[in-house]
Amino acid sequence: MNPVLPQKPDPLAAIFDQPKPIMGMIHLAPLPGAPRYDGQPPENIYAAAVADALTMAEAGIDGIIVENAFDLPFARPESIGPETVATLTAACIRVGDAVDLPIGITCVANGVIPALAIAKAVGARWIRANQWANAYVANEGILNGPAGEALRYRSSIGAREVAVFADVHVKFGAHAITADRTIEEQARDAEFFDADVLIASGQRTGSPTEPGEVHAIQAGTSLPVIVGSGLDVSNAAELLSVADGAIVGSSLKAGGSWWNPVDPIVTKELMEVVRSVRNTK
After folding, report:
1. Per-position pLDDT tens, the chain of length 281
2. Of 99, 103, 126, 131, which one has the greatest count of Cβ atoms within 10 A?
3. Contact at 8 Å (CB) between 186 and 170?
4. Closest CA to 167 of 125, 117, 209
Protein backbone atom coordinates (compact mmCIF):
# COMPACT_ATOMS: atom_id res chain seq x y z
CA MET A 1 0.00 0.00 0.00
CA ASN A 2 1.42 3.40 -0.96
CA PRO A 3 1.68 5.77 2.02
CA VAL A 4 -0.57 8.83 2.13
CA LEU A 5 2.05 10.85 4.02
CA PRO A 6 5.85 10.82 3.96
CA GLN A 7 6.97 7.64 5.70
CA LYS A 8 8.39 7.86 9.21
CA PRO A 9 10.52 5.38 11.16
CA ASP A 10 8.70 2.27 12.36
CA PRO A 11 7.43 3.20 15.85
CA LEU A 12 7.21 -0.43 16.96
CA ALA A 13 10.90 -0.93 16.19
CA ALA A 14 11.71 2.31 18.02
CA ILE A 15 9.84 1.27 21.17
CA PHE A 16 10.38 -2.49 21.44
CA ASP A 17 13.41 -4.75 21.34
CA GLN A 18 11.51 -7.62 19.71
CA PRO A 19 9.56 -8.01 16.47
CA LYS A 20 5.83 -8.59 16.83
CA PRO A 21 5.72 -7.09 20.35
CA ILE A 22 3.11 -8.20 22.87
CA MET A 23 1.68 -5.48 25.11
CA GLY A 24 -0.06 -6.68 28.26
CA MET A 25 -3.02 -4.71 29.57
CA ILE A 26 -3.36 -3.66 33.20
CA HIS A 27 -7.06 -3.08 33.91
CA LEU A 28 -7.05 -0.76 36.91
CA ALA A 29 -9.67 -1.12 39.63
CA PRO A 30 -12.22 1.72 39.86
CA LEU A 31 -10.44 5.02 40.43
CA PRO A 32 -11.63 7.83 42.71
CA GLY A 33 -14.58 9.57 41.12
CA ALA A 34 -15.78 6.49 39.23
CA PRO A 35 -19.25 5.09 40.05
CA ARG A 36 -17.82 1.76 41.27
CA TYR A 37 -15.08 3.31 43.43
CA ASP A 38 -15.65 2.01 46.95
CA GLY A 39 -13.27 4.28 48.83
CA GLN A 40 -10.34 1.89 48.99
CA PRO A 41 -6.95 3.61 49.41
CA PRO A 42 -5.39 4.36 46.03
CA GLU A 43 -2.28 2.57 47.28
CA ASN A 44 -4.22 -0.69 47.01
CA ILE A 45 -5.07 0.06 43.38
CA TYR A 46 -1.43 0.80 42.60
CA ALA A 47 -0.23 -2.33 44.41
CA ALA A 48 -2.52 -4.55 42.33
CA ALA A 49 -1.30 -2.87 39.15
CA VAL A 50 2.33 -3.40 40.13
CA ALA A 51 1.65 -7.07 40.94
CA ASP A 52 0.18 -7.59 37.46
CA ALA A 53 3.10 -5.75 35.86
CA LEU A 54 5.67 -7.88 37.67
CA THR A 55 3.88 -11.08 36.66
CA MET A 56 3.81 -10.02 33.01
CA ALA A 57 7.43 -8.89 33.04
CA GLU A 58 8.57 -12.20 34.52
CA ALA A 59 6.67 -14.06 31.79
CA GLY A 60 8.43 -12.09 29.05
CA ILE A 61 5.81 -9.56 27.97
CA ASP A 62 7.35 -6.80 25.82
CA GLY A 63 5.37 -3.80 27.03
CA ILE A 64 2.52 -2.77 29.31
CA ILE A 65 -0.57 -0.63 28.83
CA VAL A 66 -2.24 0.91 31.86
CA GLU A 67 -5.97 1.62 31.51
CA ASN A 68 -8.71 2.96 33.79
CA ALA A 69 -10.79 0.01 32.63
CA PHE A 70 -13.16 -0.22 35.60
CA ASP A 71 -14.29 3.42 35.56
CA LEU A 72 -17.64 2.17 34.26
CA PRO A 73 -19.80 3.61 32.85
CA PHE A 74 -17.14 5.66 31.07
CA ALA A 75 -17.30 9.44 30.93
CA ARG A 76 -17.16 11.23 27.60
CA PRO A 77 -13.72 12.69 26.80
CA GLU A 78 -14.70 16.22 27.82
CA SER A 79 -15.99 14.95 31.18
CA ILE A 80 -12.91 13.00 32.32
CA GLY A 81 -12.05 14.60 35.64
CA PRO A 82 -8.75 15.69 37.20
CA GLU A 83 -9.13 12.94 39.81
CA THR A 84 -8.99 10.34 37.02
CA VAL A 85 -5.91 11.94 35.45
CA ALA A 86 -4.19 12.19 38.83
CA THR A 87 -4.70 8.57 39.90
CA LEU A 88 -4.00 7.17 36.42
CA THR A 89 -0.75 9.15 36.44
CA ALA A 90 0.21 7.80 39.85
CA ALA A 91 -0.56 4.23 38.75
CA CYS A 92 1.67 4.64 35.68
CA ILE A 93 4.52 5.97 37.82
CA ARG A 94 4.30 3.00 40.16
CA VAL A 95 4.22 0.52 37.29
CA GLY A 96 7.10 2.26 35.54
CA ASP A 97 9.19 2.15 38.70
CA ALA A 98 8.48 -1.56 39.17
CA VAL A 99 9.35 -2.94 35.72
CA ASP A 100 11.87 -2.07 33.04
CA LEU A 101 9.42 -2.21 30.15
CA PRO A 102 7.98 0.45 27.83
CA ILE A 103 4.60 1.68 28.99
CA GLY A 104 1.54 2.91 27.12
CA ILE A 105 -1.69 4.50 28.33
CA THR A 106 -5.37 4.18 27.52
CA CYS A 107 -7.67 6.71 29.18
CA VAL A 108 -11.24 5.71 28.47
CA ALA A 109 -13.55 6.77 27.04
CA ASN A 110 -11.29 8.07 24.27
CA GLY A 111 -9.47 10.46 26.58
CA VAL A 112 -6.68 11.02 24.08
CA ILE A 113 -5.61 14.44 25.34
CA PRO A 114 -5.53 13.38 29.03
CA ALA A 115 -3.55 10.30 27.98
CA LEU A 116 -1.02 12.46 26.13
CA ALA A 117 -0.61 14.66 29.20
CA ILE A 118 -0.04 11.63 31.41
CA ALA A 119 2.37 10.09 28.91
CA LYS A 120 4.47 13.25 28.85
CA ALA A 121 4.53 13.38 32.65
CA VAL A 122 5.50 9.74 33.22
CA GLY A 123 7.64 9.03 30.15
CA ALA A 124 5.18 6.63 28.51
CA ARG A 125 6.01 5.74 24.91
CA TRP A 126 2.55 5.55 23.36
CA ILE A 127 -1.14 6.14 23.94
CA ARG A 128 -4.13 4.27 22.54
CA ALA A 129 -6.87 6.21 20.78
CA ASN A 130 -10.00 4.09 20.50
CA GLN A 131 -11.44 6.61 18.03
CA TRP A 132 -9.00 8.72 15.99
CA ALA A 133 -10.59 9.82 12.71
CA ASN A 134 -14.19 10.28 11.53
CA ALA A 135 -17.04 9.80 14.03
CA TYR A 136 -18.53 6.81 15.79
CA VAL A 137 -21.74 5.98 17.65
CA ALA A 138 -20.18 4.73 20.88
CA ASN A 139 -21.75 3.56 24.13
CA GLU A 140 -21.09 7.12 25.35
CA GLY A 141 -22.90 8.68 22.38
CA ILE A 142 -21.45 10.18 19.22
CA LEU A 143 -17.68 10.59 19.52
CA ASN A 144 -15.75 12.68 17.03
CA GLY A 145 -12.25 11.78 15.98
CA PRO A 146 -9.85 13.94 18.09
CA ALA A 147 -6.81 13.76 15.79
CA GLY A 148 -6.58 17.44 14.83
CA GLU A 149 -6.91 18.75 18.37
CA ALA A 150 -4.84 15.96 19.92
CA LEU A 151 -1.83 16.34 17.62
CA ARG A 152 -1.80 20.09 18.15
CA TYR A 153 -1.88 19.45 21.89
CA ARG A 154 0.93 16.88 21.58
CA SER A 155 3.05 19.48 19.78
CA SER A 156 2.22 22.19 22.31
CA ILE A 157 3.52 20.11 25.25
CA GLY A 158 6.59 18.86 23.38
CA ALA A 159 5.45 15.23 23.33
CA ARG A 160 6.17 14.25 19.72
CA GLU A 161 8.02 11.21 21.08
CA VAL A 162 4.68 9.76 22.29
CA ALA A 163 3.26 7.55 19.54
CA VAL A 164 -0.45 7.25 18.77
CA PHE A 165 -1.80 3.70 18.42
CA ALA A 166 -5.22 4.16 16.81
CA ASP A 167 -8.09 1.70 16.51
CA VAL A 168 -9.75 1.25 13.13
CA HIS A 169 -13.41 0.15 12.99
CA VAL A 170 -13.69 0.61 16.72
CA LYS A 171 -15.08 -2.08 19.03
CA PHE A 172 -18.36 -1.48 20.92
CA GLY A 173 -21.23 0.60 19.63
CA ALA A 174 -22.25 1.09 16.00
CA HIS A 175 -20.58 2.24 12.80
CA ALA A 176 -23.61 3.78 11.14
CA ILE A 177 -21.90 7.09 10.41
CA THR A 178 -19.13 5.42 8.41
CA ALA A 179 -21.17 2.48 7.10
CA ASP A 180 -20.65 3.62 3.50
CA ARG A 181 -16.85 3.48 3.90
CA THR A 182 -14.83 0.28 3.92
CA ILE A 183 -12.40 -0.70 6.66
CA GLU A 184 -9.64 -0.15 4.11
CA GLU A 185 -10.79 3.44 3.58
CA GLN A 186 -11.06 4.05 7.33
CA ALA A 187 -7.52 2.76 7.79
CA ARG A 188 -6.34 5.19 5.14
CA ASP A 189 -8.13 7.99 7.01
CA ALA A 190 -6.33 7.12 10.24
CA GLU A 191 -2.96 7.15 8.49
CA PHE A 192 -3.78 10.44 6.75
CA PHE A 193 -4.63 11.88 10.18
CA ASP A 194 -1.07 10.95 11.21
CA ALA A 195 -1.53 7.99 13.55
CA ASP A 196 1.62 5.94 14.10
CA VAL A 197 0.25 2.38 14.51
CA LEU A 198 -3.19 1.03 13.62
CA ILE A 199 -5.18 -1.48 15.67
CA ALA A 200 -7.58 -4.21 14.58
CA SER A 201 -9.76 -4.70 17.62
CA GLY A 202 -12.72 -7.02 16.98
CA GLN A 203 -16.19 -6.29 18.35
CA ARG A 204 -15.62 -5.96 22.09
CA THR A 205 -13.12 -6.55 24.88
CA GLY A 206 -11.85 -10.12 24.70
CA SER A 207 -13.67 -10.97 21.48
CA PRO A 208 -11.44 -12.50 18.80
CA THR A 209 -10.02 -10.30 16.09
CA GLU A 210 -10.33 -12.01 12.72
CA PRO A 211 -7.31 -12.27 10.39
CA GLY A 212 -9.55 -10.82 7.69
CA GLU A 213 -9.91 -7.60 9.67
CA VAL A 214 -6.12 -7.31 9.94
CA HIS A 215 -5.80 -7.84 6.19
CA ALA A 216 -8.50 -5.24 5.47
CA ILE A 217 -6.69 -2.61 7.53
CA GLN A 218 -3.34 -3.50 5.99
CA ALA A 219 -4.86 -3.03 2.55
CA GLY A 220 -5.50 0.63 3.40
CA THR A 221 -2.27 1.61 5.15
CA SER A 222 1.50 1.48 5.10
CA LEU A 223 1.60 1.73 8.92
CA PRO A 224 2.17 -1.23 11.27
CA VAL A 225 -1.06 -3.03 12.19
CA ILE A 226 -1.47 -4.81 15.53
CA VAL A 227 -4.25 -6.89 17.09
CA GLY A 228 -6.13 -5.07 19.84
CA SER A 229 -8.44 -7.73 21.26
CA GLY A 230 -8.99 -11.44 21.56
CA LEU A 231 -5.49 -12.83 21.00
CA ASP A 232 -4.79 -15.90 23.13
CA VAL A 233 -2.72 -19.09 23.17
CA SER A 234 -5.05 -20.81 20.70
CA ASN A 235 -4.97 -18.16 17.96
CA ALA A 236 -1.72 -16.27 18.58
CA ALA A 237 0.25 -18.11 15.90
CA GLU A 238 -2.42 -17.45 13.26
CA LEU A 239 -2.92 -13.78 14.11
CA LEU A 240 0.76 -12.99 14.50
CA SER A 241 1.44 -14.55 11.13
CA VAL A 242 -0.35 -11.53 9.65
CA ALA A 243 -0.21 -8.80 12.34
CA ASP A 244 2.80 -6.80 13.53
CA GLY A 245 2.11 -7.32 17.24
CA ALA A 246 -0.74 -7.41 19.74
CA ILE A 247 -2.34 -5.90 22.80
CA VAL A 248 -3.44 -8.68 25.16
CA GLY A 249 -5.70 -8.28 28.16
CA SER A 250 -8.48 -10.70 29.11
CA SER A 251 -6.72 -13.86 27.95
CA LEU A 252 -3.85 -13.21 30.38
CA LYS A 253 -6.17 -13.01 33.38
CA ALA A 254 -7.20 -15.83 35.69
CA GLY A 255 -10.22 -17.56 34.20
CA GLY A 256 -10.07 -15.29 31.14
CA SER A 257 -11.96 -12.52 32.99
CA TRP A 258 -10.42 -9.07 32.53
CA TRP A 259 -11.09 -8.02 36.14
CA ASN A 260 -8.99 -10.87 37.60
CA PRO A 261 -5.23 -10.80 38.31
CA VAL A 262 -2.79 -11.87 35.61
CA ASP A 263 -2.28 -15.64 35.42
CA PRO A 264 1.48 -16.31 35.27
CA ILE A 265 1.14 -19.77 33.71
CA VAL A 266 -1.15 -18.63 30.89
CA THR A 267 1.05 -15.59 30.23
CA LYS A 268 4.17 -17.75 29.96
CA GLU A 269 2.36 -20.16 27.63
CA LEU A 270 1.34 -17.29 25.37
CA MET A 271 4.86 -15.89 25.22
CA GLU A 272 6.20 -19.33 24.30
CA VAL A 273 3.88 -19.31 21.29
CA VAL A 274 4.98 -15.79 20.43
CA ARG A 275 8.66 -16.74 20.56
CA SER A 276 8.00 -19.69 18.27
CA VAL A 277 6.35 -17.35 15.74
CA ARG A 278 9.31 -14.98 15.91
CA ASN A 279 11.76 -17.82 15.40
CA THR A 280 10.04 -18.89 12.19
CA LYS A 281 10.44 -15.46 10.58
Report:
1. 778 888 889 999 999 999 999 999 999 999 999 999 999 999 999 999 999 999 999 999 999 999 999 999 999 999 999 999 999 999 999 999 999 999 999 999 999 999 999 999 999 999 999 999 999 898 899 999 999 999 999 999 999 999 999 999 876 678 788 888 899 999 999 999 999 999 998 655 546 788 999 999 999 999 999 999 999 999 999 999 999 999 999 999 999 999 999 999 999 999 999 999 999 86
2. 126
3. no
4. 209
* Residues 254 and 263: beta-carbon distance below 8 Å: yes
The sign of the torsion formed by the CA atoms of 248, 254, 258, 261 equals negative
Q: Residue 114 phi/psi, 5° resolution?
A: -55, -40
Task: For residue 273, give the H/E element and its range.
Answer: helix 264-279
Asked if residues 48 and 8 have their Cβ atoms less than 8 Å apart, the reply is no
DSSP 231: -
Is the pTM higher than 0.85? The answer reads yes
255: left (phi > 0), else alpha (psi -120 to 50), else beta? left
Amino acid at 248: V
In angstroms, how far is CA 151 from the centroid of its own chain?
A: 18
